[in-house]
Structures are given as C-alpha cells and as structure tokens.
Specification:
Blueprint lengths: L7 H10 L21 E2 L12 H15 L3 H4 L12 H8 L6 E3 L3 H12 L8 E5 L4 H13 L4 H4 E4 L10 H10 L4 E7 L11 H10 L3 E5 L11 H4 L3 E4 L14 E4 L46 H17 L1 H22 L4 E3 L12 E5 L5 H8 L2 E2 L1 E3 L3 E4 L8 H15 L1
Parallel strand pairs: 1-11, 3-4, 3-5, 5-6, 6-7
Antiparallel strand pairs: 2-8, 7-8, 9-10, 10-13, 12-13
Helix pairs in contact: 1-14, 2-11, 5-6, 8-9, 12-14
Bound molecules: pyridoxal-5'-phosphate.
C-alpha cells in the first residue's frame, strides 16, 4: 500500500510538515492572468529568480557607481577575487574540493575548453562515447572536436542507444560498450541526468570502467547540478561542466561551472587554451608574456569574469547553502515520488512516465510520454496555468523543485492533467 493519498488535504499536510516550505517565499513565482501563481515545473530549464538576486546585483552596480575601477579591490565583495567567493559553495554542490571548481563562461564553451585538454585523440585511440540522445549541443561539440583533430565522427563517435523498444539505457549495456571498445576510446562524455528521459547514470561505475580501459571520463551536469547528489572528487571523474540557469537559479545565460579533478591540478603539461585569468594570480599583473597557469580549475579561466553574473550566482548559492543539500535531496525524492504516485493514479493509457521508477536513477524530473505525440494535451495544461515543457517528439517534462515547489503544486498539476485528459 502506498504511503501517499491523492487528495488535496493530504498534499497540504505534506506541505505543513515540510521543513523547507518557507523557501518558496524566497523566490518570485510568476503569476497567471487571474493573479494566481503559475504551477511552475520548469526549474530544469530555467530556475526561478531568488528575491535576493536583485540586491546582490544592485550592490555591484552601486560599487561600480561609487568606486569605478577601484571596485576591483574596494567593492564590498572585491571584483578581483569575486569568483573565489563562490568556489566553496560550488564545490559543495558537485561534491568537490574548492580547488577543483571554478565559475566561468557558459556550458558549451566550457565543454570545448575541457576537451582541448581532455580529448587527446591518437591514431589508435580517438573515439568519444556519448549518448545518442545527448543534448544536441553536446553532440555538436564532440563531433566538431573529432573533426578539429582530423578524425571522422562516423568512425570516432560511439553513441549509446537504448535497446530496440526501450527508452532508457541499461547500465550493463553502457558498460559493455565501453569494455568492447576499450582500446579505441579516448573520452567518455555523458550527461549526468539525461535532459529528455530524466535518467541518472551510475557515475561511479562509469568512471571506474572508463579508467580501467584507459579512457578519460567527463560529465555534462546541466541537469544534475543542484538536482542530485554528486561526488565528483570521490568518483574520480576527470572533468565536468554544468550551467547555472537551471536548478542553480542563476538566471538566463548565467555563468557556468567546471570541475577538474585534483589529480590534474598541477598537470601543467596538459594542453589548454590560455588567457590571462588562468595565469598565476601572484604574477598576473606583471604582464609577462609567458603563461604560467594557476593550480586547479582556475587555471582553465580565460577572461576576467562577469561580475553581475557571479553576483546572481552567489545570491542563489547562498540560498542552497542555507537550505542544505541533504534536506533538499530528501524533499526532492518525496516530491517526485508523490508526483509519480499521482500520475499513476490518473490511470490513463495515453500517458506514461519514461523516467526510471527507481529514485536512485533519477533526479526530480519526470518525463511523461504522450501517446501519438499529441501536443494538444500540453497546450491544454499550459492554458490552465501549468508551466512545463514539451520536448519533441512526444514528451512533457515536469520537474518539481524542492526549493520552491510544494506538494500542493504537484497535486494541482496532476488534477489539471487529469481534467485535460478527460
Ligand atoms: C545537457 C545540456 N547540455 C548543454 C546545453 C547547452 O547549454 P549552453 O547553451 O549553456 O551552452 C544544455 C542546455 O539546456 C543542456 O541541457
């Protein structure tokens, strides 16, 4: 028997017991035309704005206004080391040491910069393993890297494809592909959580097997950072990159993040594209012509960072720190299980959840497959105040986010879906 009930009263009781419920008040929730909050389920696409973000950015505007260039040293949070102020919090989000992370650029840019260092194909070993269903930008990035090195994606790209008639990748098939192609694989680059299906991979195992065959292992954590528990350092991943506008609520196009394992922190022989912000900060302003990289992830920076973007990221990371990752993961598991329960209760064969039912194999997103790719259902729920998204060919993605979604939101979503189906 399930511990859940499909009644509004039950959902309200879950909210009443939720120790994180007041965090919703720290975010702006968009409104419907009738003045009610929308049912916002797209924190996996663009996270909502923390109310304190404005104040963080205004502080920087004020410091710029009153200090001009001196803000680099005299701003309340001096701009010169500003990126260092988020390192510890970012490290906490991805399970890393501060030395191993840095906020810089945007996601696809960072994937390229990291591949410059970590995709070093040779005649014998030049293949990249990626999901066939990876986010298109990742596909474009790896294919262009393969071509850049003079190889052909037709031969050098290994795509992980679910078995015929299946939607999810099986761990054993991923492993088998890696082992069978072991000698030829230069790089394994997987999404931590797949953007379409919501499937979370077994990071530790993939790193273990990848390293065993002599490959480098990196992750695109766009859908994982701030959503699922990550232990990049302990898992021994070589590198990772993520954006901060989804679960990390740093705003559209927000400054992204990278992880480079401590093992590579002082490997200055790794080829890399260089810029002055990656240069040893002790001697950066001596303006010498010889590049001396900083230890750790900071050594991959190119430019001085966008302070307004960093301020927005800091505003959000402070909320995460206060709420506590453990608490967030606990609530997330419960919210998503409740959503899954309610969707099953609808008992309509036109919809099915393709995301793994095992909570260890997913984050908060559930992907609802709609029979016959019928987009009219998505349009109907959107008209009733649901903000979800449609991903071609046939999926509505729904992500209840523990910082600002409530159990009542989840209940109302399921009721809306039920009404629209009938
Ligand atoms: C998994 C994944 N990879 C890459 C990207 C591209 O991100 P960006 O435009 O920030 O480079 C996205 C964007 O949503 C994504 O979801």
């Amino acid at each position: 028997m399930s511990a859940f009930e499909a009644t509004e009263n039950f959902a309200q009781n879950l909210d009443a017991q939720d120790s994180l419920k007041h965090y919703r008040e720290k975010f702006f929730i968009p409104k419907q035309s009738n003045g009610e909050d929308v049912l916002y389920f797209t924190g996996n696409s663009l996270g909502l704005q923390p109310k304190q973000t404005r104040q963080f950015i205004e502080q920087e505007l004020k410091d710029w206004e009153t200090l001009g260039v001196e803000g680099h040293f005299q701003a309340k949070s001096p701009w010169m080391p500003y990126h260092e102020f988020v390192a510890e919090q970012l490290a906490n989000i991805v399970g890393a040491k501060p030395l191993e992370v840095v906020a810089m650029n945007t996601l696809t840019v960072n994937l390229h910069l990291l591949m410059v260092s970590f995709y070093r194909p040779t005649k014998a070993r030049n293949k990249i393993v990626i999901e066939a269903g990876a986010f298109p930008s990742d596909q474009y990035a790896v294919q262009s890297q393969i071509k850049f090195h003079g190889f052909d994606p037709k031969n050098s790209l290994i795509e992980l494809i679910p078995r015929a008639g299946e939607t999810l990748l099986r761990n054993e098939d991923v492993e088998q592909t890696i082992v069978e192609n072991g000698d030829g694989i230069a790089l394994i680059l997987l999404g931590g959580v797949n953007y379409y299906t919501g499937q979370k991979f077994d990071f530790r195992r993939i790193v273990e097997i990848g390293h065993k065959v002599g490959a480098v292992v990196g992750f695109d954590l766009a859908h994982a950072a701030g959503n699922v528990e990550l232990k990049l350092h302990d898992w021994n991943a070589d590198f990772a990159a993520w954006c901060s506008y989804k679960y990390l609520n740093a705003g559209p196009g927000g400054i992204a993040g990278v992880f480079v394992h401590e093992r590579h922190a002082e490997n200055f022989d790794l080829p890399r594209f260089a810029g002055w912000w990656g240069h040893d900060k002790e001697t950066r302003f001596l303006m010498g012509n010889n590049f001396v990289p900083m230890r750790g992830a900071e050594g991959w920076q190119l430019s001085n960072p966008p302070i307004f973007q960093l301020a927005a990221l800091k505003a959000s990371l402070d909320v995460f720190e206060e709420a506590g990752m453990e608490n967030l993961f606990e609530k997330s598991g419960k919210l998503t299980s409740y959503l899954e329960f309610l969707l099953k209760e609808i008992r309509d064969e036109r919809i099915s959840v393709i995301t793994p039912s095992n909570p260890d194999e997913r984050g908060c997103q559930l992907s609802i497959r709609v029979k016959n790719s019928d987009k009219s259902l998505f349009k109907a729920i959107s008209d009733k105040g649901v903000v979800a998204d449609w991903r071609e060919p046939d999926v509505i993605r729904v992500a209840p986010v523990p910082l600002y979604n409530s159990f009542t939101d989840v209940y109302k979503f399921a009721e809306t879906l039920k009404t629209c189906l009938s």
